[in-house]
Design a protein that fits this description.
344 residues; Rossmann fold; eight-stranded mixed beta sheet
Length: 344
Amino acid sequence: MVVPVARKPAVRPGPALPRITLLATGGTIAGAETSRPMRGYRSGVYSIRSLIAAAPGVEALARLDAVPVASIGSQDMGERVWRALARRAQSALDSPAVAGVVVTHGTDTMEETAYFLNLVLRTAKPVVLVGAMRPATAMSADGPMNLYNAVAAAVHPDAWGRGVLVVANDEIHFAREVAKTNTTQVGTFKSTHRGLAGLVSSGRIHFYGAPVRRHTLGSAFAIPRRAALPRVDIVYAHAGMGRDHIDAAVRAGARGLVIAGVGNGNLGAQAQAAAAAAARAGLAVVRSSRTGGGIVERNVEMDDDRLGFIAADELNPQKARILLMLGLTQTRDPAALQEMFYAY
């Protein structure tokens, strides 16, 4: 299913720059080295205004309204900040005066935040996440160009209707497709299944195809209003795995489990028995893969129908967790949850 790309409404040309809300959450892009040569750094040291000042020409692209939301490394990102970020973003996007939103974010969990926003924000306007692999004080810091390109993407008329995007290393990624694949390299982000959303070279934008799954305005989800989303744990499969980790997650109160399975989402016999028992007890059990690519299909190497499992389709474990958390706010039926994994 190809999702139609919404077009930005035609406006009369004029001298006024488009208005972009810039939401800051910290991360390496705002970090400072703690030693030389760079062996460590502190995230979120610099203000968003400092980042703007370090990207010459960015204020010629848009009128930037800088709003601090958090100042953390993205390893500390979680539901509390997601909610605050989503509310701030939605408030800005609901304003007719705002053309789009850019979010500065650490790279460690950027793909998760991007996918969460992709599912809960109700807008056709551009939302772009951006970060850096090198702190602001590093030699050849990548943050300034990434930020410049992110703003350029956010004001581009063809960015409308494409859902949440991630911009880094001269590339534009769809939130659903992007994954961090390297610990330190600036080219860490890859879109392993369906390819790039586009390229950006010094602010010049080249978009490719449209996203193929439901998002933003087409999503049935919204910013959660509950005290907390249902707890979903990820259990990492490995050779010789027993049932202990799955049983521990159940005892800890998980409402759902995502299995980062070996190969095609597989589990050894003991772990499989524990996961099946969890499914019979009413937990939603999703089989994903630890491999970093490929599709986990139903009933190939495991009898999902008999065991009560859900296949993650193309989603990696960390994104499968987000979709399952949101899905469990609407249903606990495995068949209905499976359809969500096909739709989103």
